[in-house]
Amino acid sequence: MKKIEYFNYQKVAKDMKMPVSILKKIEKEVSAEFPKDKMMFELHVLRAIRSGYWQKRAA
Question: Under the phi-then-psi rule, with left for phi > 0, alpha for psi from -120 to 50, and beta for the rest, what region is 3?
Fold first, then answer.
């Protein structure tokens, strides 16, 4: 995605040891929902990362 402007979700993903492939899937899904709203995009990606749900799916 483009440059981070509102929420540094990439740092959170890295700190939580999220695989890049999962982050890219989340970004793709969220961008379909919020194609023109950068702040909502970043917020929802951050919420998905912090939810920890992806950890159960990756295990």
Answer: beta
Q: Are 58 and 35 in contact (CB under 8 A)?
A: no
Q: Are 42 and 4 a contacting pair, CB within 8 Å? A: yes
* SS3 assignment for 5-57: CCCCHHHHHHHCCCCHHHHHHHHHHHHHHCCCCHHHHHHHHHHHHHHCHHHHH
Structure confidence by residue, pLDDT tens digits, 1-34: 568 899 999 999 999 999 999 999 999 999 999 9
